[in-house]
Amino acid sequence: MKRTRLLSHTQKIWLGWFAIIAAAILAGLLLAALDGSQAIWSGVLAYMLLLLLGVCGLLGMRRLLHANHAAWRAAIVASMVRLVIGVILMLILPQAGYQDNPASQAGYLFKDAYRRDVQAWELAQSSAPIITAFAGEFSGDQYGGMLALSALIYRYLSADAHRPFLVLIVTAAVSALGVLATWGVVKAWFGEPAALISAWLMALYPEAVLLGASHMREALVIPAIAFAWYGMVAVTERSARGGWLVAIAAIVLLLVQPAAALGVFLVLLVLWTLDPSRRLSLKRAFIAGGLSLLALVVLYSIWAHLPSLQYTKGWQVFVQWLENNFMFQGKITVRASGWLQNIIGDLGEQWRGVVLLVYGIFQPVLPAALITPGASIWRVVGIFRAAGWYFILPFLVYIPWMAWVEKSERHRRQLIWLAMVMWGWTLIASANGGGDQWDNPRYRTMFLVFMAGAIGWMWQTLRLRDNWREKHRWFHRLVALEGVFILVFSYWYVGRKYIRAIWLDIWVVLIIFLVLGGGIILWGWRQDHKRRQAAATEETPSEDRKAV
Asked: How far apart are CA 132 and CA 281, in angstroms?
């Protein structure tokens, strides 16, 4: 019998690169055929170059983190899902979307992405330098970072035709890098099983997928925050690569979303301070305070030059920025919702902020996405986004309690801080977005890496504990509460949109939900009380047994 000759390591590498290049050529040909431009071959070269750069970046990140095959699969799936969905949306939205929506007719899911990309193409075609994007002259991007990147790609890779697919390749590849970084940081903190759960959540969370499949700056912000967190962990382990990753993340965040840069910096600074392996000295406290002050000054200098804030002085810049966003988006949200107007009218104008804040937490509202009529593609997108949020919401509600009762001191304080950060940022996003169903969820998703890390820890912790279904019954009750919310409000939306005969006033629906939800809570408390009594009875010896 002839022995089969195995390929050497070098031959496998060459064969792998041959397959990668062949796939890049085929993908480039397909994208060039779909983008509608006449210059096919220049498009193929541009697409192939960016695809190969993306693959090289992913391979480099995999080697840097020593990522296993499971993490690599999550990253590849993340990039492919985003690129495929982004291309499909750009092709079908002009036909299947709303005909009176210019962004939809141009193939863009987000209005901000449409304005930014059109202005980036105009800048690329002009004689103005790319740095003009940071001058505050473009309404599509108040900070300029994403606009500058898009214009740079168009000017030097696609000067002959507007090819939006090029930017989608970049956002898809960078999103995949964020998946690998998430895997790395969660593995360092909580172990490999939790890291894989977090990586897949980053890869497939619907809002992150749609942002990564669009020309949105959050497609860069989300991975940059993951880089920053992993860099901080690497720095604590005295690894040189940690400082570089933190620096890269800081540059990206400051150019693309300075407000997120400040928030992330403060979050990571506290996480670093709460590390149980290090003692907080006076020197470190001064360094942390100095860096925090420097970050505030940098953010102030950026915001003070924004057109909407240029006449605001001092620390009022920060307050005015949040008020501007909340008031503007809040008015739009209330104007578009008759039942919100009724609730605010009944409660009084002084409750407007609280109502919008609570409403924003539940956005995008799953019952509305399921029931409200509309174009099929927009209904699919709405259900996809809402289902993702309502899937992780019970975890986010339960994580603070799990962190509080966690017996291991290794990361207990840091987990409590992460829980505070997740809910603090969720409220800030709700306030900043004014309860809007588009801006509010994308602001919230910027901190997805912290949510994914905590959920990965919780999931794995529950799996490792014996009899966890008995010990964590309240998690199941939270899921039941969410189910009741979805059913009750789905009924209300059906009555509102289709069958007026069964329609109930919104206040009646709220009371029904509170009664049913309160019943679940009281029943759960009663069941736990009975179990405690039964356990106490079993532990207490009876009189007969005492006599014996």
From this structure: 44
